[in-house]
Amino acid sequence: MSEATLAPPAGGRTTTANRNMVLSSLRNGDRFFFWATRLSAWIVLLILGGIIGSLFVGAWPAIREFGIGFLTTQRWAPNAQPDPVLGGLGPIYGTLVSSLIAMVIAVPVGLGVAVFLTELCPQKLRQPISTAIELLAGIPSIIYGMWGFFVLGPFLAEYVEPALIATFEHVPVLNQVFKGPASNLSLFNASLVLAIMILPFITSISRDVFLTVPPVLKEAAYGVGCTTWEVVKNVVLPYTRVGVIGGIMLALGRALGETMAVTFVIGNSFKIQTSIFAPATTISAAIASEFAEASDVHQSALILLGLLLFVLTFIVLAAARLMLMRVEKKAGN
Amino acid sequence: MASLYHSRKRRNAIAMGLCVGATGIGLAWLFVILSTLLWNGAGGINLAVFTQMTPPPNVHGGGLLNAIVGSLIMTTIGIAIGAPIGLFAGTYMAEYGRYEKLTTVTRFINDILLSAPSIIIGLFIYGAVVVPMHGFSGIAGALALAVIVIPVVVRTTENMLLLVPQQLREAATGLGLPRSVVVQKVAYKAAKTGLITGLLLAVARISGETAPLLFTALSNQFWSIDLTREIANLPVTINNFINNPDPNWKRLAWAGALIITFAVLALNIAARAIGSRSATK
Question: What 3-state class would DSSP assign to A274?
Answer without folding.
Answer: coil
